[in-house]
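Lest this sound abstract, we think one record worth quoting, the chain in one-letter code, the fold tokenised, each line plainly labelled:

>
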Amino acid sequence: MMRLWGRKSSINVQKVLWCLAELGLEEGKDFERIDAGLHFGKNNTPEFLKMNPNGLVPLLEDGDLVLWESNTIMRYLVSQHDKNGRFPKGVTAQYSSEKMMDWQLATLWPPLRASFLGLTRTPEKDRDYDAIYKGYQATNQTLGLLDSILASQDYCSGNQFNLGDIVVALGVHRWVLLHDTFPEKTGSRAQLDNVERWLKQLKAETCFGAFADKELNIVK
């Protein structure tokens, strides 16, 4: 049985859990999940660091294969377990999805991460509210690009749901939750109608709802 290390509140663990759900793989039946990271610890033990010297989650064990980096884990899972064709195949579908996975890591997440970590993982006395505000407003501009993409296609990766939608949607969902929770710290949230339509579509048509947290996991 596969073993997945990571807490459910982690955005990167949620990527993998959402992917597993779309593949029809169930926790306890098809894979074991071990809470790790933040208050659960375990990710700084010799056992864990031997598998992932970064000391980060998620980490996947599948037989002798050990993988870290959430996007790589997702690609592996689809390559090995997509028996029913849940994710589209072919060069166009694959690389349209790949570019959005890279875009989430390199372009969307860095400014949003500054706001997210600043408001949920940093004690209030240590918060840099100027950096938090700037990061959030920069994310507004970045997501304007996503909104323009979604004006001409159903999903961010094309007209079929794919891995790119998973990684981007979880980031966008945190963008929404940050403003809902800390509106005076983030400043205004851009009105992006195509992004809103896409999020509603994902909640209706995929397993997104199971991983769309209702509130932020704030570390005091």
Remarks:
- The radius of gyration is 17 Å.
- Residues 17 and 46 are 25 Å apart (CA to CA).
